[in-house]
Design a protein that fits this description.
mainly beta, Methylamine Dehydrogenase, Chain H, five-stranded antiparallel sheet, 1 helix, about 0% helix, disordered N terminus
Length: about 475
Amino acid sequence: MTSFGLGRYALGVVAGVAILTGCGGSQSSSGASGAMPQGASVRVAPMASQFETHIRPQVSGLEALYSFKGSPDGADPWSGLVVLTKRQCGAPCPRGGLIGTTLMGGDSNNDGTVYGVMSGKKGSWTESVLYTFKGYPSDGSEPTGILAETQPNRVFVTTVAGGTNSLGTVADLSCSSDWGQCESQSGAVYSFAGTPDGAKPYGAVIADKAGNLYGTTSAGGTDNAGTVYRMQPKGSSYIESVLYSFESGKDGDQPYAGLIIDKKGALYGTTVEGGATGYGSVFKLMPSGSGYAKSILYSFQGVPDGSQPYSGVCADPHGALYGTTEEGGTQNLGTVYKLAPSGSSYKEKVLWNFGSGSGDGTSPYGGVLVDKDGVIAGTTYGGGSGGSSGLGTFFTLTPSGGTYKESIYSFTGTDGANPYAGPSVDENGRVYGTTTQSGGEDLNWGSIWGYTKLILRSVPPACW
């Protein structure tokens, strides 16, 4: 086990952990994040001379709030957004405050950023860089996961590269009360080493009532198939330990998304591959004595059932789990699924098969939101009005007579393209998200959007 320092800052306590939900990383959780889609290229972001305030027209209820420029403001926002609450801000709390990460941009080496977006007058939104990563051998590179729930103005970020071993980090940031900037505390970075502790942590960490942090690594561990790890606060440091090391087989392989935790301390997550048939799994780690007992809740079957769940799961008050698979389903273009408790096991049901109709989305990488009326909201990386070459969608699924009715917004490029992360929601039911590409004005570095037309009927949602 390894320690990393927290300087003079002590970890705060998370209140009211019933089932913490991030849905892939949306939160976050959040969200949530996973691996880049196949064919995604690594690009060099251009330098921008200054930050700008954007006023965008609303298009069918979706409003493009900000278009990234590259460096220094950031590029390729693969992670979702954290909507700042009064508890996260302390006082004062910026109006309409959103924070997130960009995979690239920032310094001259494109190590990525943490950014904030604040709403202003007459529909304006202003983006600013809160923190710029420094890469190897410092604080990390390519940030993908963000948590802002432990105490006011405190942020934990996971990076998939950089750090002392170039295998990713967990960085602890303290931010100013107005969320104008964040800084890393001395020694407050944990660098993964590969074996046995893990490597490439795509998903965000979560926290329990005692202030322990939990997360996954997509690689590393004893069999290089990924791990579930815990960071325990000890004085001004953390002690890192591996709770489970995947074996690249029936137990699961490559957990990309973050976790959720229930009030008994059980952890739930997904693996992109492995399981009984090799198409991915949903797993549970239950505290048992001084360790954890792992069980597979469901192994995906491919077609027509679903495969490659890059997103994590979220849970409703009845213990049902919801998520997406990037492939599989009747069209092999992805699914939305539900796992409902059934005695001592779970029963899986595909709620939606993507690609089933004209204009439908394809390849959902991010997680979903589910409100108390059962309305499901999410994104797809591809598809939409452009068909197989479409730029992705924001979708809602509304229960209707034992099935679902889908509503679709198709991204056009000017408002963004290829949303990877799932959406986030504020206390008023307004939904926000990011796209990894395009963004208007001939840019191609991603965007932030808000959807004003949809109001989730019950806030906060039952599952997010």
